[in-house]
Every structure is written in C-alpha cells, then in structure tokens.
Amino acid sequence: MTDTLCAALMTLMPLPGALGYAAAATYEQVENWAQLPQGMKRWSQATGVDIDAHGTIYVSHRHYAMPIMAFDGNGRFLRS
Predict the structure, then answer these.
(1) Which end of the chain is less crowded, N or C, counting CB atoms within 10 A of the terminal residue's CB?
(2) Contact call for residues 40 and 66 (beta carbons, < 8 A)
(3) Is pLDDT larger for residue 16 or for residue 78?
(4) pLDDT-derived band at 7, boundaries 50, 70, 90
(5) How many Å apart are CA 62 and CA 13, to the nearest integer?
(6) What is the residue-wise DSSP string for 23-77?
(7) What is the pLDDT of residues 22-66, one digit of tens each?
C-alpha cells in the first residue's frame, strides 16, 4: 500500500433510500493525507476504513502496535 489512503478520502452523498436507487459517490485522491503517529513511517496493509457520524475516520491495518487508528477529516492522527 502506498502512503496514500484513497479509501478514507471519499465524500459520499446521502442515499435516497425511500426512492429505491443509490446516489452517486465521488472520490478524491489526496497524496500524503494522513499525518502518521511518531515512529510510524508508512502504512501497513489496510484492511478496512470507516467514518463515524462525527467525521472521525477509522483505519484498521496490519500493524502490531496500532491495529486501529483514528484520524480527523484533515488527516491529523487522533488516537489508536
């Protein structure tokens, strides 16, 4: 995986579930978006990304010390 985490940088439009069709999603790649925590130089293998209702982005990846990391929308590391 490169230093870019494309999956975490998507903007999803609300789904109009009552209308029975899926809305279009847009994606934007931002190079070096994440500010990795001190001592971590690159991503391990990412296995999942999710965004909560407050906009916090959670990344699960195969790193022995930090298997789940949280970032704000600007890529600032919050916690693991």
Answers:
(1) N
(2) yes
(3) 78
(4) very low
(5) 30
(6) PPEEE---TT--BPPTT--S---EEEEEE-TT--EEEEES-SS-SEEEE-TT-BE
(7) 577 788 888 889 999 888 888 888 899 999 999 999 999 888 888
Q: Which two tokens stand for residue 11?
A: 């903007």
pTM above 0.85, yes or no: no
- C-alpha atoms less than 13 angstroms from C-alpha of 13 in its C-beta half-sphere: 8
Phi-psi region of 75 (alpha: psi -120 to 50; beta: other; left: phi over 0): left
User: In the prediction, which pLDDT does 51 show?
Assistant: 94
User: Cα 45 vs. chain centroid, distance in angstroms?
Assistant: 13
Q: Any idea of the CA torsion for 50, 45, 72, 4, to the nearest 10 degrees?
A: -110
| Pairing, β 46-51 against β 25-27 | unpaired
